[in-house]
Amino acid sequence: MSKNYHIAVLPGDGIGPEVMTQALKVLDAVRNRFAMRITTSHYDVGGAAIDNHGQPLPPATVEGCEQADAVLFGSVGGPKWEHLPPDQQPERGALLPLRKHFKLFSNLRPAKLYQGLEAFCPLRADIAANGFDILCVRELTGGIYFGQAKRPRRVADNMKKRLIPKVYHRFETRAYCPHRI
Question: Which positions fall inside the Isopropylmalate dehydrogenase-like domain (predicted)?
């Protein structure tokens, strides 16, 4: 008998619920096509959780994610909750604690230009003609993501720039890219 996969579904806020509706349709297609046993449970997170439970990350949401085989996450945040203290806003009060709890440290952002879509690519025609298939790894736990900008420095009469310095240690880079390049 095949394994039952249980997925915690966290639609969240903004476009999250709309995207999640479509993601669940894809999940249903996968389930049907490959005769997989997949169950889902929905949990509030972010602004929706603030509205329904008074906090951005209810304990029931964390427990549901812990018990699941995977988490399907929408998005959190929006203007409605910007007036709250920073640690109670959806992003800092839900997304960051979830990342910390589950020791998640990076996003994988694939990008591929399929043949026949070159005309719709915003890159120069000579680049688009060759296509591309890349994977960007975005670090999420420190460094530039949480870096504190230094005081603005004047670079021209009417321009200033801020620098966010960051040194990555070997143990950090090996977590993201364990193979030598």
Answer: 6-181
Q: Residue 153: pLDDT above 80? A: no
At residue 181, the pLDDT reads 52
Q: How far is Cα 106 from Cα 101, in angstroms, rounded to an integer?
A: 14
Residues 131, 172: Cα–Cα separation, whole Å: 31
Residue 117 CB neighbour total at 10 angstroms: 11
How many beta carbons lie within 10 A of that of residue 25, not counting itself? 10
The whole-chain average pLDDT of the chain stands at 87
How many residues belong to the chain? 181
Domain definitions of the chain by residue range: 1-104, 105-181
Residue 175 has phi, psi (to 5 degrees) of: -65, -35
**Closest of 43, 41, 58, 34 to residue 6, by C-alpha:** 41
pTM: 0.74
Phi/psi for 143 (5° steps) reads: 60, -135
85: left (phi > 0), else alpha (psi -120 to 50), else beta? beta
Kindly tell me the sign of the dihedral angle through the C-alpha atoms of 153, 155, 160, 162. negative
